[in-house]
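COMPLEX REQUEST
Ligand: coenzyme A
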Amino acid sequence: MTNTTITLDTLRPEDHDGVARLLHRSLVHWYQARLNQGARFGDSPEPFRLFPEVYEALDPGQAIAARDEATRELLGVCFIHPRETHVAVGIVATAPEAAGRGVARAMMQAAIDRVQAAGLPLRLVSSLLNLDSFSLYTRLGLVPHTMFQDLLLNIPAEGMTSPPPPGIERVRLARADEAARLADFEHGLQGIRREKDYAFFLRNEVGDWKVWVMEDERGEVNGVLVASHHPACGMIGPGVACDETTGTALLWRALDERRGSSAVFLVPSAAANLVRTAYSWGARNIELHTAQILGPVPQGHGVVFPTFLPETA
Ligand SMILES: CC(C)(COP(=O)(O)OP(=O)(O)OC[C@H]1O[C@@H](n2cnc3c(N)ncnc32)[C@H](O)[C@@H]1OP(=O)(O)O)[C@@H](O)C(=O)NCCC(=O)NCCS
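STATUS: Structure written out below.
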């Protein structure tokens, strides 16, 4: 492997099984070797097929593949998500046998070249438990700015044990024609716009999504929160709310809908009331992440719920 020449090209649909195996293998290997936590990714690559399937539907032809030039074997993947205001990147993964040889750096540099040619900021969310990826990104010039707590909650079969928070009656499922409205709301609070993500969730053709929206008394959007109901992905997010009260109501509603299962959600550590409330529901910290950006550090408002599928930053 040491003498292998690596080439970069584009990921293709016929790579999906290989991508699932690579993601599973690299995550299990990294988390087992460094944190003794490989088991958290299960023993089958099958659930990881959802990543390339969702990304092929959302951003066809965008993902970068690193291959062994001689054998064409897949050694790395880097998913790229261009949006109106920015480009999100993730997940990035390198095959364990090719680690530490600059594969991820080469893929990221290609992503950065593309993003800079478009004149947009590059955004991602990186694990604070993974100094390899954190360092990879910061060495390439990305700036960490907002810390998030990954919280895990097991929701009983009979539903959330805590009473519904105030305002819950104003939380409802979004209508199929609301993508632009939700994207405008996020743009107003966070300065990023990504209508195609909301349109994708609302079409609900790949994966299994519910989009919760909360409105104020005048019918203005106050918050939006997406939840994955696909068996391969138990994440709540992405979402954004104008304040912690709204975020709490949306989160409670999305969690209650996932009765009898467990869910992972990322909450900004600075949203202290929301974090405390999640603890009172029984949620446990399982990881920390930070948003990173190549470009001006954002000065957004409101409470953000990032996710990794699709990577939203
Ligand atoms: C994280 C991961 C993608 C790195 O891939 P890789 O191909 O081994 O990384 P590279 O060899 O391209 O580069 C790593 C860079 O980080 C640097 N680095 C690593 N640890 C560092 C540290 N503690 N301090 C400073 N720099 C560090 C390396 O020196 C290198 O930078 P350089 O090219 O400027 O020398 C890989 O470990 C992986 O796939 N992990 C599992 C999946 C995962 O967790 N992905 C990240 C999701 S957020």
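REMARKS: The helical segments are 16-35, 50-58, 103-118, 131-139, 179-190, 195-203, 244-256, 272-281. The longest strand covers residues 143-154.
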